């Protein structure tokens, strides 16, 4: 007897979860949401006001990293970014290793940008000069970065 | 008043740009005035429409940075009379750094939309980058609806779970009216049993949140891109053209129902 293949595997469970989330989107109570979000905004504002005080010491430590001083900490799934903000030099080797790995295109673009931002404007201008809208930006960035190191 | 629709999925290669371009054209062919916004730093949509992004004096990046520059001032006409575009900019690659991911940076795009600009168009379609970064958040914050193109494959599903979290976050914090218009199945290959079964399940679980129209694999769509054209201009009889016409009708029907 032939047995029917399970082509979807665990997909059905994921589909069920997504379906529930998508279908439930309109059932929320808007007023409650607004109240919650305004409370949350207030909390966020308070947090934003508090954060600079507690981070003041840290900010003075990174004064040499001009681009990092004014930036709010931002979230990223990529581990190298917070490291780079605190200690760019120590991350160069790690960064170089990561570039050889299979980075997603967007991560590579963002990392490349971060690095270029820390270097000299002429490197960024070089990327602009040698690449066109049809080129693979990641490849252009990689070439420039590898040249630099 | 224009309906603003983001074409969004952080997975690359699912047909976001193809959908934005062809859906925009199909809507304009039906008499609508359409504005396309290319928020993807890869600039593919702009390049396809013959725009040299490097030659622009002011760009979308400048608009997002400088609150004084009106969005209307960077609109470019295309060869099609009802279809305009706001091109992408190379500098958008650094948007994550320039506009740190925080609530106040989420509305940079929506704040730049003037009422008169919205009055000028029936539809504004935003081609989002393949990430869930600040550009995508700005697109979602400015939109009335989102369309999620996806291939009927398991990797596409993982991406949608993550996208939904961002969608829920934006809806809760910034844009309470944001609505998922639907998931759009793209690159569907009817010869593959996996695609058939997955499509059946997507319809079963997503119910009304999936478009009836399915964008099937069609080489004419890719050939049209190579020629910097929509599939309508390249071969109006192609299956891809029929699929996008049908999608445009569904989108218009959805918007009319809501009104």
Description:
Chain A is mainly alpha-helical. Chain A has two domains: 30-61; 65-149. Chain A has helices spanning 11-23, 30-61, 66-69, 80-86, 88-100, 105-118, 121-130, 137-148. Chain A is flat. Chain B is an alpha/beta fold and 259 residues long. Chain B has a single domain (3-258), classed as P-loop containing nucleotide triphosphate hydrolases (Rossmann fold, 3-Layer(aba) Sandwich). A seven-stranded mixed β-sheet of chain B has the order 3-4-2-5-1-6-7, with helices on both faces. The chains are: A mainly alpha (149), B alpha/beta (259). Chains A and B meet through helix 1, helix 2 and helix 6 of A and helix 2, helix 8, strand 7 and helix 9 of B.
Largest sheet of chain B: 7 strands, mixed
**Could you give the distance between the termini of chain A?**
62 Å
Please tally the β strands of chain A and state the result.
0
DSSP strand (E) fraction of chain B?
5-15%
Keywords:
heterodimer, A: 149 residues, mainly alpha, 2 domains, 8 helices, 70% helix, 0% strand, flat, B: Rossmann fold, seven-stranded mixed beta sheet, 7 strands, globular
What is the fold's blueprint, element by element?
The complex is a heterodimer of chains A (149) and B (259).
Chain A: H1 11-23, H2 30-61, H3 66-69, H4 80-86, H5 88-100, H6 105-118, H7 121-130, H8 137-148
Helix pairs in contact in A: 4-5, 6-8, 7-8
Chain B: E1 3-7, H1 16-29, E2 34-38, H2 44-48, H3 60-65, E3 76-77, E4 83-86, H4 95-98, H5 108-112, H6 115-120, E5 123-127, H7 134-142, E6 145-150, H8 154-173, E7 179-185, H9 193-206, H10 219-226, H11 231-234, H12 239-258
Parallel strand pairs in B: 1-5, 1-6, 2-4, 2-5, 6-7
Antiparallel strand pairs in B: 3-4
Helix pairs in contact in B: 1-12
């Amino acid at each position: 007897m032939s047995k029917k293949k399970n082509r979807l595997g665990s997909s059905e469970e994921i589909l069920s979860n997504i379906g529930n989330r998508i279908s439930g989107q309109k059932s929320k109570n808007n007023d409650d949401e607004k109240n919650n979000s305004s409370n949350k905004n207030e909390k966020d504002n308070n947090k934003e006001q508090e954060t600079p005080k507690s981070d003041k010491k840290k900010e003075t430590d990174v004064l040499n990293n001009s681009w990092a001083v004014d930036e709010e900490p931002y979230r990223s799934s990529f581990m190298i970014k917070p490291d780079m903000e605190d200690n760019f030099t120590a991350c160069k080797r790690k960064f170089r290793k990561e570039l050889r790995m299979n980075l997603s295109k967007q991560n590579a673009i963002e990392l490349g940008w971060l690095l270029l931002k820390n270097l000299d404007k002429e490197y960024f201008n070089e990327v602009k000069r040698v690449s066109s809208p049809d080129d693979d930006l990641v490849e252009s960035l990689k070439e420039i970065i590898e040249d630099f190191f | 008043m224009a309906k603003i629709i983001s074409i969004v999925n952080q997975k690359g290669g699912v047909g976001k740009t193809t959908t934005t371009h062809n859906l925009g054209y199909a809507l304009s062919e039906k008499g609508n005035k359409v504005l396309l916004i290319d928020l993807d730093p890869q600039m593919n949509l702009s390049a396809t429409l013959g725009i040299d992004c490097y030659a622009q004096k002011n760009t979308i990046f400048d608009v997002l940075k400088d609150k004084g520059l009106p969005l209307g001032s960077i609109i470019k006409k295309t060869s099609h009379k009802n279809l305009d575009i706001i091109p992408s900019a190379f500098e958008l690659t650094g948007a994550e750094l320039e506009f740190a991911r925080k609530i106040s940076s989420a509305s940079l795009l929506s704040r730049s939309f003037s009422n008169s600009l919205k009055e000028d168009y029936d539809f504004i379609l935003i081609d989002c980058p393949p990430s869930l970064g600040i550009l995508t958040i700005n697109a979602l914050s400015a939109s009335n609806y989102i369309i999620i193109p996806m291939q009927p494959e398991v990797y596409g599903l993982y991406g949608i779970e993550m996208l939904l979290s961002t969608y829920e976050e934006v809806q809760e914090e910034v844009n309470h009216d944001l609505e998922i218009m639907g998931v759009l199945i793209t690159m569907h290959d009817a010869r593959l049993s996996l695609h058939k079964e997955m499509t059946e399940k997507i319809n079963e679980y997503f119910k009304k949140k999936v478009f009836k129209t399915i964008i099937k694999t069609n080489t004419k769509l890719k050939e049209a891109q190579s020629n910097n054209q929509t599939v309508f201009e390249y071969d109006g009889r192609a299956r891809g053209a029929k699929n996008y016409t049908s999608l445009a009708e569904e989108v218009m029907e959805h918007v009319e129902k809501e009104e």
